[in-house]
Write a structure and sequence with these properties.
Layout: H1 2-18, H2 28-41, H3 48-54, H4 62-66, H5 68-75, H6 87-102, H7 115-128, H8 139-152, H9 159-168, H10 170-174, H11 181-189, H12 199-213, E1 231-235, E2 240-244, H13 248-266, H14 272-400, H15 404-501, H16 524-541, H17 549-559, H18 571-576
Antiparallel strand pairs: 1-2
Length: 582
Amino acid sequence: MALRKELLKSIWYAFTALDVEKSGKVSKSQLKVLSHNLYTVLHIPHDPVALEEHFRDDDDGPVSSQGYMPYLNKYILDKVEEGAFVKEHFDELCWTLTAKKNYRADSNGNSMLSNQDAFRLWCLFNFLSEDKYPLIMVPDEVEYLLKKVLSSMSLEVSLGELEELLAQEAQVAQTTGGLSVWQFLELFNSGRCLRGVGRDTLSMAIHEVYQELIQDVLKQVLPDRDGKRCMFCVKTANRTYEMSASDTRQRQEWTAAIQMAIRLQAEGKTSLHKDLKQKRREQREQRERRRAAKEEELLRLQQLQEEKERKLQELELLQEAQRQAERLLQEEEERRRSQHRELQQALEGQLREAEQARASMQAEMELKEEEAARQRQRIKELEEMQQRLQEALQLEVKARRDEESVRIAQTRLLEEEEEKLKQLMQLKEEQERYIERAQQEKEELQQEMAQQSRSLQQAQQQLEEVRQNRQRADEDVEAAQRKLRQASTNVKHWNVQMNRLMHPIEPGDKRPVTSSSFSGFQPPLLAHRDSSLKRLTRWGSQGNRTPSPNSNEQQKSLNGGDEAPAPASTPQEDKLDPAPEN
């Protein structure tokens, strides 16, 4: 898989060099020549019949409908055997095709790179480039390769100088994320990074780095010299090899190189620099992940800041709603007090009127009773008079026999007395009717007094219920104020925790960022308090209605009962309250 990726990078340059119009399409005749050359340089036996079949001049061939990649994978790359060809010859073929179109050395001879040096840098670029197309080299790999080349020329470069050098290419690499191979070659040809080093020295340094990274030469044997010094030995299972180096430094480098080769062999790895390239790539990926995590953390902090601002706005709205609720409660309380005063005054006036009516009715009853007593006395007198008249009539009847003249007179007198008796009887009937009517009015007055007494008792009971409702409303207002003060305290503690969390991260700080201080944060707290305020406002809006037993029961259920203690904080509220500041 690694060999296939390396071959594809070089073939990609050859293909793009043949794409003159930069449309992603190459003529089949050119692809046919390219395929034939690839067969030759990769030492792959090929079938001319299949080659002709795929690259026919008509538009019906497989390459016309499927593209070049299926043919390249099936008939070329799948048949490649590692070690069966010289990769440098393969790279030279692809470099020749792409350099004709894309690489132009200075015609005046001022270029620092020869064609061979440019080819080796092109190979190094492909080795260190990312596995994404178009191929680019990230700044970290550019820095690594520059350091390798400069160290081969015994040149030391400071971090500031290297950053200044790479900063000149930053604007070019900003859009693509790295340098292309032609920008990389131009960096060497310009000589900005070489400090006046000669072309021969640069060529030797490039060749040494090329052997180390591409050909996996960890260390090369100096030319033979007379005498042996700085000896060291390599012991194997069969024999021991004695070796000598030119100096102590070379002996240490040889020893480290042999140990590295042994370690790579034991780990089953074929190339040190491929392993180092993979490690650097993993480190870049880790840095990218850390950068993404940092950006995510900054985004989360920004979201938390926005959430904080939103919470503050909600708190301001809540405070404004509270002030409006308090104002409405005060207005409602004043209105209820005014209604209570008016009702109390009306009830007191009705009570005074009822007392006055009762007193007047009692006086009228007394007068009626006195009048009835006088009428009864008069009736008694009339009855006595009637009795006397009857006696006189009997005397007159008796005396009629004696005296005719007296009889006539007494007859006339008797008629008169009978007439008076009729009048007296009518007067008696009228008095009886008057007494009955007075008795009936007395009973009606007593019933009306009883009704007024009951109405007075009901008014007093309503007044007492109104006083109790007012007392419960005052208690609810105090409970709401306590809850508001508790909410203000919680928000203040929450702001302290938020200010801790918003402490800026210093550069180079590698401590892991955790969100432990917000592990218990859950926004439903304000919703719970908002529901309490809505419940209080809803109860206040019902205060305009006349209290009834059912409304009193509902009010008790909302207040938790007159004798019930104040409700303790729920587990959710305990969980949401931020910890106090130490």
